[in-house]
Amino acid sequence: MRYLIAIAALLMVGAATDVRGTTPILKAAQTDFEIAYLDVRSNRVTNFATVTAGTPFDVRVVSGPSGRYRAVVDDKMLDELSAGKWRWIAPSKPNHYRLAIVGPGQAELTVNIAVEVPAAKIRNGRLNGYRIGNYPARPLRGLSIYNRPEGFIEVMPEHLVLQVSPRFQLAQFLCKQESNFPKYLLLRPRLLLKLEYLLDRLNEAGYPISNFHVMSGYRTPAYNAHIGNGRYSRHTWGGAADIFVDQNPRDGVMDDLNNDGHIDKADAHWLAKFIESLAEREDYKPFIGGLSPYGSTASHGPFVHIDVRGSHARW
After folding, report:
1. Could you read off the pLDDT of 226-251 as tens digits, one per residue?
2. Which of these, 44, 192, 183, 55, lies nearest to 107 by C-alpha position?
3. How far is residue 56 from each of residues 75, 89, 118, 245, measured CA to CA in Å?
4. Could you report the per-residue pLDDT of 101-119, keeping only the tens digit for each?
5. pTM
6. 95: Cα within 13 Å, side-chain hemisphere
7. Class in CATH terms, 30-314
8. Which of 138, 222, 263, 307 is placed for a possible disulfide with 240 were both Cys, Cβ 3.0 to 4.6 Å?
């Protein structure tokens, strides 16, 4: 496989969520410059993108110190289109590739790029044996974010640990349906940036939370229908995550965030309220989307749904 797994930029440290200001802020590493690609901007040291085979992938430096920047894909230097701007043509063969942008001070920012398997290869609702199902023929209210996907990220066992952001790995967003490899999914870079943003804000507020537990990330239309969810769920487009804080103890359920001695929907409300408090911030605008707390059932504990649909949605 022609990709290098980016080293996680954050040391995962266990810390109690009921103690404020007693431990260092657990902030994901950032560079001193910022890039733009697809529809996002980032200065995170580790990023993720998808591209269709044979199509161009453009990336540019949008802010940072003056000087020479370099772009390298799997050890091959890219020629600049103009100062701080490059174009990489995705190979025809789907795979995972590593793009590194190196700044004047030798700071390095990585974009792990997945060249997708074309959706046109789906036969009878399956892609290379993996059950996808069917996407709606018409996008919801004509919105382009509900267009049928053009391709899917292929996942083999060696890709599970691929860093898609400083704190998250590809495996955390796979659909829960049982299958052999290869598996497939969709994953929007903006969702990853939102998750990182929320963790940074929680830590800045004095809650030393190293990560979210992603209870549900991508869902195939087939799996989404199986669990009784709507056809236009943002999960089926890779733009949503059901999350909870599982920090102290790490036991697979939400922590007691409101310190009332119980693990229940009130803890999901606490997290949702914190996220809602960020809505008026200028730096939150790229992450506007759906938000809803959920309580426990027989199969799971409380959690919060977030997405990056681009408009406010509450239920």
Report:
1. 999 999 999 999 999 999 999 989 99
2. 44
3. 18, 4, 15, 38
4. 999 999 999 999 999 999 9
5. 0.92
6. 13
7. alpha beta
8. 307
